[in-house]
Prior knowledge:
The complex is a heterodimer of chains A (about 200) and B (about 675).
Chain A: H1 4-14, E1 39-47, E2 50-55, E3 59-64, E4 78-84, E5 87-92, H2 94-98, E6 110-116, E7 119-125, E8 127-135, E9 139-140, E10 154-160, E11 163-168, H3 170-173
Parallel strand pairs in A: 5-7
Antiparallel strand pairs in A: 1-2, 1-8, 3-6, 4-5, 6-7, 9-10, 10-11
Chain B: H1 3-37, H2 42-62, H3 65-82, H4 90-113, H5 121-132, H6 134-137, H7 152-157, H8 160-171, E1 175-184, H9 188-202, E2 204-211, E3 219-228, H10 232-238, E4 245-249, H11 271-274, H12 277-291, H13 298-327, H14 332-360, E5 361-363, H15 365-382, E6 386-391, E7 396-398, H16 399-420, H17 424-429, E8 436-445, E9 448-455, H18 462-471, H19 483-490, H20 511-520, E10 524-530, E11 534-542, E12 548-555, E13 558-563, E14 567-574, E15 579-581, E16 584-589, E17 592-598, H21 599-602, E18 614-622, E19 625-631, E20 633-640, E21 655-660, E22 666-670, H22 672-685
Parallel strand pairs in B: 6-8, 13-22, 17-19
Antiparallel strand pairs in B: 1-3, 1-4, 2-3, 5-7, 8-9, 9-11, 10-11, 12-13, 12-20, 14-18, 15-16, 16-17, 18-19, 21-22
Helix pairs in contact in B: 1-2, 1-4, 1-15, 2-3, 3-4, 3-5, 4-5, 13-14, 15-16, 16-20, 18-19
Amino acid sequence: MVEQNIIDAFLEQMGPLLDEEPAQVAPETAGTEKATERYLDLMGFQLGDEEYAVDIMRIREITTLLEMTPIPRAPGYIAGVVSLRGNITPIFDPKKKIGLPQTERSNRARIIVLNRNDEQVGILVDAIIGAARVALGSLEPPPAVIRGPQAEYVSGVARDADRMLIVMDIDAITRVEGAAGSWKRVAEPASPEER
Amino acid sequence: MTQRNQDKAVTEFLAEAEDILEGIGQSLIDLESGMKSGAVNPEVINTIFRGAHSLKGLSGMLGFFRVSELSHTLENLLDNLRLGKLALTGAVMDCLFESLETLNSLIAKIGQAGDDDVETGPSLSHIDAILSGEDSEKPSDGSPLGGVELAASVLEVLTEYEEHRLMENIRQGARLYEVQVTLDLTTFDDDLQELTKTLGTLGEVITTLPSASDTPESTIRFNLIIGTPHGETELREVITLDTAVLREIQYSTEVKPVQAASRPSRPAEQGAQGRPAGTEQSFTGELKGLTKTVRVDITKLDALMNSVGDLIQKKNMLYGLAWEMKKESTLAGPANDLLRITDAVDRKLQELQEGILDVRMIPIGQIFNRMARIVRKLSNASGKKINFSTSGEDTELDKLVIEDMADPLMHIIRNAIDHGIEPPEERERLGKPVEGTIRLDAYQKGNHVVVEVSDDGAGIDAEQVYAKAIAKGLLEEQDNLDEDYLLKLLCLPGFSTADEITEVSGRGVGMDVVKQNISALGGVIDIQTELGRGTRFFITLPITLAIMPALIVRCSKQTFAIPLNAVSENLIVPGDAVRTVEQKEVIRLRGRTLSLLRLQEIFRLPPSENPKNKAHIVVAGLAEKKIGIIVDEFLDKQEIVIKSIGTTLKKIRGIAGATETADKRARLVLDVSALIEEATQGVQTA
């Protein structure tokens, strides 16, 4: 169980997002079925100035920054690979993937190691904020305010009372689109081998 | 049975059924070649019979009634063959192969959908048709048992099968002997088995009968009847038991049929119980053999291998620690102890590693058998006559490598039949043997296994391939053409030399998929072709993928591992030895030109700080294709376990995976065959 003050602190930090939120009425079901309500546990983290959360059940571990081995020819949003007790783990940089401005990595930076199918992948985050619990019924599709490329990496928005949490779509953020990297040398003519 | 137990039982059934069918497939091939050469080994029919019998039992237990019905019907057919009531003809062979196919589909369906809902009607009626016509096909040889110099008491107790084998031996003009042995009751089991085995090398043990006649106390006497082309002296030489009494059984060859026909035929399913001691013995012998093997999921072996790999890295750290300690004079004593212990651990780890590797190894003959069936099927379908031969079936490869080789091999063989081997009329016109030949040969070569697929067909017309590739817009007009280039063209996606899609090879998979599959295994494929003479494919594969020694190199401050099985030598040459020919860097190495590739360039690494006056070159390559990879520094040699860098990243060319080195860092492992391809492609398209 997470201490209540951590959740409060987390929700407080999530607060500013509300300012951009157009007024919407929470679904009627929220709050009426308290007894049978199911919850979603989230872990909040920072990417630059923005705050996101992922499903806690998908997290394998959270580690401090490890030296990463860069992968040549991989897309820029792949920060590299690390070996976690022998498990080779690719690390994604969500800021590059989403297109957020790059910021200095401080000593609060962490790697969140997540389950993706049967493998493990990591995402680089600037800081961990803490855990939060929201009612499952309060999950909504991303509102119109999250637009453009960002929207595809958001699996939903959780409402808790009058707060809003942006839940990151782990599978989308750790997906490699199309043929990975540009492995063809520039000098070479495009051959039909490229798919 | 609970659902879970049921699932587990089905999984075990599937594995066992696959083994049985695999075995039946092999036996059918043997049976057919025996039929063609006129010398059918009766034990082969018995093996198939036992396979069908086990399958019937297993499938019946789990309620897969279509499987059990078909295997039961098949068993009837085989029983008739065993007893000589049915002659082995091409039609019977076809029927047997067809039944095997149907059984394979049934098992596949159970594996996919959990039910055996596959049409079995045609196979069943085919068998019934053959069985009902059996009288007309029955060989009309006389049964000369009446003229055999054997006591009536012996003749009476022979089973129908033994009688048939006795007649068969007589028909073939074999010499018959009776061997009487008196054995100690406490050891007669083993002695008899040993004797049966020894005699089996010289001929056929037709029956083993216990004898009731006066025997010394605590002994038992057996009469064995043997059919053999050898004489008495040879037999005496192999029989080591001093109690053995040998007698040749005389028979006259021209006698009239005796009681065989009047004896009511025993229903097939009673066969097992009705078998006399001799056959029972060999039966239980095999059952014992089976229980000694354990079926293991390959992923469990992978997990074990991973643990061993991790242990090896930990051991390397222990060595590091010991050497550090040795530097402190006060710690020298414990440091030496630590070194000794680590040495011992190292040796045990090597044993463990070899043991696990050994378990993963299976003979490649398994897929050769599958290929033999495919050749048979396709040659029937295409009307081309094909003689299929193999060698090196015992060559061992990693189970996973073998599994992944099946599809590429099948495709190459399909191509050979469809495009390579000419129709019989044409072969005759060309003065070639009417029967085309396809060979599959496997052999070990250093750290690799080479699989050769060759045919004596038309060969591949490079000009035609080239014209076709241009017509299809797959490439621009170019001048230079060589065999290497031909292979690349064949492996272009969407390339097919057959103008129309045929049933045999036109299944939408091309040589590009073949090449991809082989590259994924760390192998390379080469081709040799001669117009009018045939085509040869050489597939070179690493023996195992699980653990391998690797060369660790540095380039632009990054560390990479290069599997040593792909490295032939390391060179440090003066910078001016590297010359540029047609915009490509090369060096001369023992009179040959070696293309070079700068790792820093192709991976777009930051510029390397290494001085230009020396070049570190890793000469890498499999089979005939070699390139030099320029790096900044050679570091050391380590045992590595290649791991995937995840499904999300596996498409990156030139990187086979990653490994954890002794410093606990993740290091990338180069995919040498992909790099070679890139380098050679560069030469030809530059």
